[in-house]
């Protein structure tokens, strides 16, 4: 892994050196890896570390009583963290002792005389910290004060800078930010030593970094059951949340706001606690000036009835004075707290803006401008200069109004929304980037709404998050990043990564997002298991990229094409689950609750959600095929998978961590969208009959479509043999030639079996052969046609690129023959992105579009392809959805020197169901198709050109006449002598056969 920052050779404290020092200190091999970080560290060579605890004695912590309450409170957490590690609690001092061998000095520049004196003397290097936003330095200082021999100094540029420095130290000694929220254990040690430093945490990449607690029914249920039985999310829960946010280096919150939760300002302890912790509290797009319309408007309206006794409506064109007073009351009430003020307006509870007396877009723009002016006046009068930051969120229809001319004051931060599915809708132009208020984003890691909701598990690929956040930052969006995390749990990994990027956007690169997973899981479970857990999680995200488990439905994946693509996918899940369970069994007992929460439950839950729908689809197909007992087997398997899923969730809520999470994990809440539930199945009435049936791969019923075999891809195909009744039937299968191999030649069958057909290529004559496999039982006989193409081993060895076989060419886009950079743009690999191992992206995202003369000016991808067919063939480019509502999403495609064809993707988020945008976000890809003409067989070059930057390509498929229309995924990648010399012919998941 590359170092986190350029290293000063005179102060070589690299991450490797740090880990070597930890090892030398005798730490257990399971000790989590130390800091993440984007921090910059160095230590004088040979300088001894600082003992926080030795021989059962802990060093006291000093913080000036005049320092900010947030700093004093966090110093108390450092006490608790040292005690968690060593069982001994340091003292907390507000005055310096006359004599002290060692001390931890905590303080904020300008608020701690001791810290200021060290800085003024040049003994504490604060040159890259002082005057910065939330920066800190940690270093050992010899004789820092009279009577003190040695001190570990933690100094911040402001209150949160100091707080982050404190929590850095906690994490360095082995206390995970998730120690409470995910039950990550703290490794016990007798001695705790930290390096001498200095260790700098410079300014964050993004100024305000936080979360939106949203769609929080499960959190509310859990909070009411376990935290505050008289409240539906109250101060005790927020106190836990504030601590987590600070440990994750966040500083910002949009609190829970749904009808089933108590609104944040209902309890005055909430904003007071936020202030004491140093958390900036704001509000979401429908909650102007910190007002929760769901709870607060109705009682306000009741108290402000009109002269006729009627209730005022939340419509600024009807009741501007009543609404203005409603906002003013909250501004006055919260003026003393560090807050973020949302301006603008939407309807109550995230509904569209109501404007009875403004019906056209231009009229609504005028109304919105009046609203903003009124709100600005209120803030100036009630809060004054402290009313910062102010934000405007052009979400859904408000984006249309903004683009139509809403005038947002220059010092207000524009918060750009994604499409709710992780694709940024539009980014600021040059004029918007120049605004003093800057720009931010509202980004979803969880979502309730069209076309489908995903609220259960963390299923957005981290590489996708990286790609979009990197693009955002390159467009100058660095003032505020707010992440919709649903009800928080299950989003632990995605949230940690997102906030890590918000702190240091340059920390991770296109080729090492997986390194974040290894580092992060290493900190939770120990370095010994880090790489395997990271690999498990990467595959979990990849399978979710094919289809989120929350989006699964009937007939999504084909059970008859590409070797049963649904079964192959389930086999991948099955292998992943085996690895997950095996690793969990290796962990010490103390780690198993955290492992269940962070790794095992998401993998197992996603597996079972897919499995029950797989068996339900097999059941439906079995009924259509006329199967007897076998149809009921599939019904039983689907029901069993759903039952197992329920048991899995019950374990989370009742057993994990002693039942600590009672009510928190629930795929099927009552008031918000549910994960897919129990699929309907059909059972066949038992009849005392028997009969033989056969269906071969590629056919829902019967054997009409031949099984295709190529010596290039060395395929494996299946034939389902089944009983149409319930009494046993004998059957026999026989191939026409001895070089056709069958996994089973017959037997006695009650239900069904799957016979795999392969070719012994060493014994197969060259040429094209039409072959038959006969399946007989009693008086019944079925013939399964095979088309076998053997070009010979020499032809396979001569291939230099991808080879057409079985009527198609399938290419993973990352497997290029050559990449050509042109101008100032290029294609780069983004590992862990898309449905395969990686995708390619046109960068930089700020490059100018190329709209003509692509061969001379556009960055290019080249793929060598050997065609055996000639004709005009459709080529489908699987691009990863991305949007630009003020631009376009285009690329160009050509074969050899033929003129390129421009392909235009969906650039606008419609918010509808059933249209192109909806299909793209459900499937995680967009299929763009053009036609190329192959005039003669042999080697050709397929070329892909960038038109618009920031566009990513996952797979490319050429249909030369063999692709089935019903498949969901691209077919397995074609043979390539380098990238894919042994094409995947793996076995899918199958039911027990009897």
Structure, briefly:
It holds the Pfam family GH115_C. The chain contains 22 helices and 39 strands.
Q: What would the average pLDDT be, to the nearest integer?
A: 94
Describe the largest sheet.
8 strands, parallel
CATH homologous superfamily classification of the largest domain: Glycosyl hydrolase family 115
- SSE-based structural type: alpha/beta
Number of domains: 5
Poorly predicted runs: 1-45
Distance between the termini: 51 Å
InterPro entries: GH115 (IPR031924), GH115_C (IPR041437), GH115_sf (IPR042301), Hex-like_dom2 (IPR029018), TAT_signal (IPR006311)
Signal peptide: 1-41
Organism: Streptomyces asoensis
Protein name: Gylcosyl hydrolase 115 C-terminal domain-containing protein
Fold and architecture overview:
- The structure is a single chain.
- The protein folds into 5 domains: 152 residues, 2-Layer Sandwich (Chitobiase, domain 2), CATH 3.30.379.10; 302 residues, Glycosyl hydrolase family 115 (TIM Barrel), CATH 3.20.20; 123 residues, Methane Monooxygenase Hydroxylase, Chain G, domain 1 (Up-down Bundle); 101 residues, Immunoglobulin-like, CATH 2.60.40.3170; 160 residues, Jelly Rolls (Sandwich).
- With 994 residues, the chain is an alpha/beta fold.
- The N terminus is likely disordered.
- 30% of the residues lie in helices and 22% in strands.
- Strand 16, helix 12 and strand 17 form a beta-alpha-beta unit.
- The strands form 7 sheets. The chain has an 8-stranded parallel sheet, with helices on one face.
């Amino acid at each position: 892994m590359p170092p986190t920052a350029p290293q000063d050779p005179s102060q070589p404290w690299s991450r490797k050196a740090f880990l070597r020092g930890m090892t030398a200190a005798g730490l257990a091999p399971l000790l989590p890896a130390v800091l993440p970080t984007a921090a910059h560290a160095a230590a004088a060579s040979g300088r001894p570390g600082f003992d926080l605890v030795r021989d059962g004695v802990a060093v006291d912590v000093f913080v000036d009583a005049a320092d900010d309450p947030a700093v004093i409170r966090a110093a108390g957490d450092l006490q608790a963290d040292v005690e968690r590690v060593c069982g001994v609690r340091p003292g907390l001092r507000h005055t310096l002792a006359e004599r002290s061998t060692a001390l931890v000095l905590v303080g904020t520049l300008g608020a701690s005389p001791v810290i200021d004196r060290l800085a003024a003397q040049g003994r504490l290097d604060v040159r890259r910290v002082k005057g910065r936003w939330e920066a800190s330095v940690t270093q050992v200082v010899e004789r820092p004060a009279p009577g003190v021999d040695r001190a570990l100094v933690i100094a911040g540029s402001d209150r949160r800078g100091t707080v982050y420095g404190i929590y850095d130290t906690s994490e360095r000694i082995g206390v995970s930010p998730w120690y409470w929220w995910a039950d990550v254990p703290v490794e016990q040690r007798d001695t705790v030593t930290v390096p001498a430093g200095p260790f700098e945490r410079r300014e964050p990449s993004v100024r305000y970094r936080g979360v939106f607690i949203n769609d929080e029914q499960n959190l509310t249920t859990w909070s009411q059951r376990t935290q505050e039985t008289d409240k539906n999310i109250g101060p005790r829960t927020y106190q836990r949340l504030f601590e987590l946010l600070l440990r994750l280096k966040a500083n910002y919150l949009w609190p829970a706001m749904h009808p089933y939760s108590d609104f944040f300002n209902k309890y005055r302890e909430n904003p007071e606690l936020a202030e004491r912790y140093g958390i900036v509290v704001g509000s979401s797009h429908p909650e102007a000036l910190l007002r929760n319309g769901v709870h607060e408007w109705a009682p306000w309206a009741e108290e402000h009835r009109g002269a006729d006794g009627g209730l005022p409506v939340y419509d600024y064109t009807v009741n501007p004075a009543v609404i203005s007073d409603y906002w003013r009351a909250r501004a006055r009430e919260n003026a003393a707290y560090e807050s973020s003020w949302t301006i603008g307006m939407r309807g109550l509870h995230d509904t569209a803006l109501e404007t009875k007396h403004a019906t056209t877009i231009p009229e609504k723009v005028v109304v919105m401008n009046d609203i903003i002016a009124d709100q600005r006046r209120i803030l100036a009068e009630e809060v004054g200069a402290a009313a910062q930051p102010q934000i405007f969120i052009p979400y859904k229809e408000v984006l249309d109004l903004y683009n139509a001319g809403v005038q947002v004051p220059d010092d207000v931060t524009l918060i750009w929304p994604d499409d709710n599915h992780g694709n940024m809708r539009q980014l600021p132009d040059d004029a918007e980037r120049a605004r003093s208020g800057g720009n931010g984003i509202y980004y979803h890691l969880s979502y309730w709404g069209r076309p489908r909701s995903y609220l259960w598990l963390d299923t957005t690929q981290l590489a996708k998050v990286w790609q979009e956040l990197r693009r955002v930052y390159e467009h100058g969006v660095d003032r505020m990043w707010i992440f919709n995390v649903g009800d928080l749990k299950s989003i632990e990994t995605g949230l940690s990564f997102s906030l890590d990027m918000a702190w240091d956007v340059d920390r991770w690169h296109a080729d090492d997002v997986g390194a974040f997973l290894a580092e992060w899981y290493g900190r939770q479970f120990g370095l010994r298991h880090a790489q395997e857990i990271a690999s498990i999680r990467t595959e979990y995200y990849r399978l979710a990229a094919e289809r989120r488990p929350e989006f699964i439905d009937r007939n999504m994946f084909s059970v008859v094409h590409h070797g049963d693509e649904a079964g192959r996918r389930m086999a991948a899940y099955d292998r992943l689950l085996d690895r997950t369970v095996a690793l969990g069994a290796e962990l010490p007992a103390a780690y198993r609750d955290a492992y269940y929460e962070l790794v095992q439950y998401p993998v197992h839950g996603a597996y079972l959600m897919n499995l029950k729908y797989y068996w339900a689809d097999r059941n439906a197909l079995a009924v259509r095929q006329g199967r007897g007992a076998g149809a009921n087997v599939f019904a039983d398997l689907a029901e069993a998978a759903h039952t197992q899923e329920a048991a899995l969730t019950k374990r989370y809520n009742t057993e994990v961590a002693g039942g600590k999470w009672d009510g928190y994990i629930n795929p099927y809440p009552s008031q918000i969208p549910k994960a897919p539930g129990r699929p309907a199945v059909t059972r066949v009435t038992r009849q005392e009959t028997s009969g033989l049936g056969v269906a071969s791969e590629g056919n829902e019923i019967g054997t009409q479509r031949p099984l295709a075999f190529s010596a290039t891809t060395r395929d494996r195909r299946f034939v389902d043999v089944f009983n149409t009744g319930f009494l046993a039937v004998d059957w026999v299968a026989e191939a026409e030639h001895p070089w056709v191999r069958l996994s089973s030649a017959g037997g006695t069958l009650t239900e069904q079996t799957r016979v795999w057909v392969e070719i012994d290529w060493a014994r197969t004559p060259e040429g094209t052969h039409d072959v038959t496999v006969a399946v007989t039982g009693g008086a019944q006989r079925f013939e399964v046609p095979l088309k076998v193409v053997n070009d010979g081993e020499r032809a396979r060895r001569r291939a230099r690129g991808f080879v057409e076989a079985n009527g198609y060419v399938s290419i993973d886009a990352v497997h290029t023959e050559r990449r050509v950079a042109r101008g100032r743009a290029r294609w780069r690999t983004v590992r862990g992105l898309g449905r395969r191992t990686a995708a390619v992206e046109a960068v930089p995202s700020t490059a100018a579009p190329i709209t003509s003369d692509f061969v001379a000016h556009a960055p290019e991808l080249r793929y060598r392809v050997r065609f055996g067919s000639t004709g005009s063939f459709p080529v489908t480019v699987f691009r990863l959805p991305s949007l630009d509502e003020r631009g376009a999403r285009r690329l160009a495609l050509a074969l050899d020197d033929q003129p390129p064809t421009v392909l235009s993707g969906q650039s606008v988020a419609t918010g509808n169901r059933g249209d192109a945008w909806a299909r793209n976000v459900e499937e995680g890809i967009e299929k763009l198709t053009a036609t190329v003409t192959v005039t003669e067989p042999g080697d050709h070059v397929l070329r892909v050109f960038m038109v618009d930057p920031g566009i990513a390509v996952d797979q490319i498929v050429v249909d030369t006449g063999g692709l089935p229309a019903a498949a969901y995924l691209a077919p397995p990648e074609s043979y390539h002598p380098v990238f894919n010399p042994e094409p995947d012919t793996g076995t899918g998941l199958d039911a027990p056969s009897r």
